[in-house]
Amino acid sequence: STTLTTVLPAPDKLTVDSVDTTSAAVSWSQPPGLDQTEHHYQISFHCPGTEPHITTTSSPSITLSDLQGGTQYSVTVCTVLENGKQSHLVSTTLTTVHFQWWKRPSRVAAVCVLLAVIIGLWDSCKFFIYFF
User: For this UniProt entry, which segments traverse the membrane (predicted)?
Assistant: First the structure.
């Protein structure tokens, strides 16, 4: 007799597709040979000093939300069969965008400030002309 052990294939090509201040989209390729096998993916993500957030999906992509801006996260994904067997983990890291509104003024904000200054000066001129 002999014993055979099959290896559950892990997700392939784990990629960070987009990163924002509080979210990130990651995707991976479906492992080969699982077309007719019921399975899902377990995703774990965390930043240093925090407990991992664990979630599952049947899709080969996910958007991670409620992240902290300007923070590095470790992300791992594995394939899980219906009987609970798991593949090896694949991992990557990502860093969310650090946003400081006072360092990135928008054009709309600049125009609003300029209009407020002009209106304020206009009212001052009318006040000055009226009383003098």
Answer: 108-131
